[in-house]
# Entry
Amino acid sequence: MKKLGVMIISAICIMISVSMISSVSAAGGYIRGDADGDGIVIIDDVTTIQMVLAELESDETGIITMCGDVDGNGLDISDATFIQMYLAEYENIYHINEFFTVTDPTKPKPTNDPYELPLV
Ligand SMILES: [Ca+2]
Ligand SMILES: [Ca+2]
# Structure
């Protein structure tokens, strides 16, 4: 009985994940920072970027780069850092976790260093 419950919960989670990915694709855009395409920006997106940069995961479709490149200069380790800073609730100057259309991938640029750390 417990096994059946686990299977049902797993199936529901998969259906929710698929529907979230489908809704993003159907809307013709993406969520900036959502590198793994599950519809939310969490630490797993940082891991996905790191895996691509370490060539442990491929990005044949370019979707990870498109969603993970939060500052618009190509996918690099700074994008992972910016997402981590977003998760730590620093100012969100790169509009991480906001929806952008694929046909109009406007990427607002900061006018100064957005994440200058305060001196302690
Ligand atoms: Ca995600
Ligand atoms: Ca970048």
About this structure: The longest strand covers residues 29-31. The chain has one domain: 2-100. The radius of gyration is 16 Å. Residues 34, 36, 38, 40-42, 44-45 surround calcium ion (ligand 1) (CB under 6 Å).
